[in-house]
Amino acid sequence: MSFSPLIRQLIDSLRVLPGVGQKTAQRMALQLLERDRSGALRLAQTLTQAMEGVGHCQQCRTLSEETICHICQDTRRDDTLLCVVEGPMDVYAVEQTGFRGRYFVLKGHLSPLDGLGPEAIGIPQLLARIEQQGTFTEVILATNPTVEGEATAHYIAQLLTNKGLIASRIAHGMPLGGELELVDGGTLAHALAGRRPISI
Amino acid sequence: MSFSPLIRQLIDSLRVLPGVGQKTAQRMALQLLERDRSGALRLAQTLTQAMEGVGHCQQCRTLSEETICHICQDTRRDDTLLCVVEGPMDVYAVEQTGFRGRYFVLKGHLSPLDGLGPEAIGIPQLLARIEQQGTFTEVILATNPTVEGEATAHYIAQLLTNKGLIASRIAHGMPLGGELELVDGGTLAHALAGRRPISI
Ligand SMILES: [Zn+2]
Ligand SMILES: [Zn+2]
């Protein structure tokens, strides 16, 4: 190795970024040092501020530095529609389609083999949120179209149907096994429009 | 936009990283917030330490937090061979080939249209370094095989030949128009081995 200790540490810690391997981390480290130290210092500052300041919205559980996020605070939204997703990136993806209802963000999907049951992913909080709001007539289950996402949607649909609520599932306009956050907006818009009630 | 201000700032500042566009920056920001806040805080810390602590070696001008880098301090190196490159990433690339002489790092290449002449890229310091050391018998010009890199090598070769030194150029084992830091080690090793004296 021909890098000095501080540069080696920087390269190592850049690998925390998703999709960044050794070679990419090296180029990033040296380019920042050679060409944009002030940009790198700004990045260090926003990283610290965001990691320390961003929590989860108490109502929808998406990432937000406010107790109640700006989507939950928005009074012009449709209070009869709730869209349930696996993560914050999915909220962004669904927003891009023009959906203007409310959201609830699970912590991923049910995964019994990993010990992740209904409590671990926040299903009790979802039910509490629905009860507390009292205005939702339809709950759109927009978990990923994977085996686990389907199982999670079906599990929640059963609970909601028992309570007399309409549970719907986004249509399979997207490839099976794919991830919600990777699909293009048009496909996702079609999938939302083509949602169907779940019959148990 | 559906991200909160702190998250938006984080996404914006991640785009300082080379090769990172809007979509990649979004995924990075949310993945760090969801999955590895301690890794992100460590990254913030090493970014700050490196940007504030890393300077340039006074002898070879590569990036280093020490006044004299560990390559220049290494007494087992061949003091008759000096390898001149365009940037610190190139030092790393040449090291990987097994080269164990000395280095001098220019600030890029001559670029008259951008107003970058010999002083701007450090050629006077290169000549001073050669004179001060007094032991170099051959100077390998390992600038990139681009039009500007070739012109820079020829300019330096002329100065050195006038002083009675042997100036050599790495062989064109690499594709023309390519960049030194992107070529594989084997190709670069061949290019080093096949270097030839420059005849003016
Ligand atoms: Zn919210
Ligand atoms: Zn040095």
TrEMBL record, chains A, B:
Keywords: DNA damage, DNA recombination, DNA repair, Metal-binding, Zinc, Zinc-finger
Coiled-coil regions listed: none
Entry's Gene Ontology BP terms: DNA recombination; DNA repair
Zn finger (C4-type) location: 57-72
Domain of life, source organism: Bacteria
Annotated protein name in UniProt: Recombination protein RecR
SMART domains from the UniProt entry: TOPRIM (SM00493)
Function: May play a role in DNA repair. It seems to be involved in an RecBC-independent recombinational process of DNA repair. It may act with RecF and RecO.
NCBIfam families attached to this UniProt entry: recR
PROSITE patterns the UniProt entry points to: RECR, TOPRIM
Membrane-spanning residues: none
One example GO MF annotation: zinc ion binding
Domain Toprim residues, every copy: 80-175
Keyword Zinc: yes
Name of a matching Pfam family: RecR_ZnF
Record flagged with keyword Zinc-finger: yes
Protein family: Belongs to the RecR family.
Gene: recR
